[in-house]
Amino acid sequence: MESILTNRKGLAQEIGKVAEVAGYLWEKGWAERNGGNITINITDWIDDDIRRLPGISPVYRLEVTLPLLKGCYFYCKGTNRRMRDLARRPMENGSVIRILDDCSSYEIIADEVVLPTSELPSHLSVHNYLKSIGSNYKASVHTHPIELVAMSHHKPFLEKDVLSNLLWSMIPETKAFCPRGLGIVPYQLPSSVALAEATIRELGDYDVVLWEKHGVFAVGNDVMEAFDQIDVLSKSAQIYISARNMGFIPDGMTQEQMREMSVAFHLPK
Q1: Angle 92-95-98 (CA atoms, 0-180°, nearest 5)?
Q2: Kind and range of the H or E element at 50?
């Protein structure tokens, strides 16, 4: 069967970005076994021929109603699929789904019947929220950055904006490229509605959310932007931990220096 990506340059490029990022997540050690998920809204790259494609799967219930996603199309990593495999063969380890008119169910339309991640309702709930606020963000990434997860085991770091300020202070680029900082969600059962709801609340103020003792969730205009924000935060965490391992507490940039950065680069304050 011909791939849905054949002769569709824009769509192929977006899925190619997902494969590239999946490889980065694996290489960094952030995606053990089948850990982590990627979901992107690809509706802008869907043509009339794709819209006419029949479903190749049964209709699956989402158990949530997402009125702003009616008729939208998503590429989703498959459940129990490994990021390292997705990096090499994205259409064998993920699928394209269509949200049906009832806004609470979906069907797979391509390339194969690869069931999406069990966290699909949570990811789609975030995408529904993003559309509700008029956001252009189309990608969501969940992964397990080692140093950030380690820091989430220390209660003082989980106080509001403590980690944001600490990580911003480690290197100027973090403030520049992740200016809204890192939101915190106390531990919740993975894949639960409670975790999804808490994440959505934090996304009102942040682009990246740290799930205590679990991982991070990031959104962006595309999957590369979402990855980049996690990457810069992770670098800052590594700098902090490296300094502590050398036996000292790093000074970090001062609040005045960070305010100067915000003014110079027109960043949110």
Answers
A1: 160
A2: helix 48-51
The residues annotated with a catalytic role in the active site are 119
Strand arrangement of the beta sheet that strand 73-77 belongs to: 60-61, 105-110, 94-99, 73-77, 37-41, 139-143, 215-220, 208-211, 182-185
pLDDT in tens, 21-44: 999 999 999 999 999 999 999 999
**Backbone region of residue 123 per phi and psi (left: phi > 0; alpha: psi in -120 to 50; beta: other values):** alpha
CA 141 to chain centroid: 2
Render pLDDT for 211-234 as a digit per residue (tens, 0 to 9): 999 999 999 999 999 999 999 999
Is 82:34 a contact under the CB 8 Å cutoff? yes
What kind of fold does domain 1-143 have according to CATH? L-fuculose-1-phosphate Aldolase (3.40.225)
Closest CA to 262 of 173, 166, 179: 179
Beta bridge partners of 40: 75, 139
User: In this structure, are residues 90 and 22 in contact, taking their beta carbons and an 8 Å threshold?
Assistant: yes
For tokens 């806004």, the residue is 103
> Does pTM top 0.85 for this prediction?
yes
Number of H-type helices and E-type strands within the chain? 10, 9
Region 145-269: CATH code: 3.40.225.10
From-to residues of CATH 3.40.225.10 in the chain = 1-143, 145-269
